[in-house]
Amino acid sequence: MFAAATKNFVKQVGDGGRLVPVPSLSEADKYQPLSLVIKKRKCLLSKKSKFASTPFTLKDILEGEKEISAGVSSYQLLNYEDKSDVSLNGRRGNQIINDVGFDVAGSDSIAFKASFGIVTKHEVEVPTLLKELTTRKINFDHCLVHQTRKSRMEILCVVMESIRTTRQCSLTVHTGMRGETMRFHIIEDQNNKGRDKAIVFPAHTTIAFSVFELYIRLDGNFELCVTPIAKGGFEKEKSGSSSMNKLRRLKHNLFHRNKRIVSIIPSSDGYLEDLFTDYYEKAASMTDLSTSYLREGAHARINLLNNNIPKGPCVLCGMGSSKRETVYGCLECSFNGQKYVRLHAVPCFDLWHKRVK
């Protein structure tokens, strides 16, 4: 019920899409200004980002013990009273059924009544906060930072504003069947009043909030993403070090898998370094048959199947067994007494002719 009411509130108030409805009454106190929340990126199965509360504030993940002095301003936003009659048919109806939180079997409509009264808006003084944070750094040893950094699907965010109630509020839900001339036709075998459910929650309950994402650099400095187009997350390590780690792992596997082939190539260690560096610099797909970067005068690459030569592993890297067996190669080169060589289209064909020919 609470989730349905807060979603409806955000939908009607709008605020350019920045407002996020509080999903649970039990977590409402965790969405206060300067609190930290985790934003889970959109995925194929979800069109909207999801937010999860944390027990921490921005100060908790900063180095040092200095408190954040930026103030929070408050003012009355509006007086909110809502009555809605919603059909349970369709996709939106299924979502409402989940949000309501009780059995609505036998009903095709729900009547909501949300009485929030006067709600107030509490927002951080952004210019003061930005000025103060220029000398602060993120503590990478903090458990929340450490765990979020491991995930590519999560972003740390800071709550910058919250909307709260000012008095005790009530939510009421009535379910029943739509009638032709009246709002509800009551199901007689249940009771003569339909089914009702009501909850009351205390004053100063947060019902919506908005956030700024954090963009955290490798040296601990960070930025608040104050514009909608700015994206948060962690700065990625330079591609060079990451690529070299991948090269070392691939080289290690290649040596153990193909010692026989590697042994015939002079300067094999430098060769493998050039092989994989060349591969990543050209960013070529293993299925890409482009020859635009092959040097002039190279042997022609052909489909061996057209010459009655069966599939087999690539003579250079040794990979290509089972379903990925190599079908391309060269008829102008020979190997192990055979008048042809099997070579992956990219990059093995070109690299073979650079080093072996």
Automatic annotation (TrEMBL):
InterPro entries documented for this protein: Gasdermin_pore, GSDME
Keyword terms, alphabetized: Membrane
Homology family: Belongs to the gasdermin family.
Official protein name in the record: Pejvakin
Main location: membrane
Lineage: superkingdom: Eukaryota
Native source species: Gallus gallus
Gene Ontology biological process terms in this record: detection of mechanical stimulus involved in sensory perception of sound; pexophagy; programmed cell death in response to reactive oxygen species; regulation of peroxisome organization; stereocilium maintenance
Cell compartment(s), UniProt: Endomembrane system
High-level lineage: Eukaryota, Metazoa, Chordata, Craniata, Vertebrata
Record domain Gasdermin pore forming: where: 1-235
Entry GO CC: ciliary rootlet; cortical actin cytoskeleton; cytoplasm; endomembrane system; neuronal cell body; peroxisomal membrane; stereocilium base
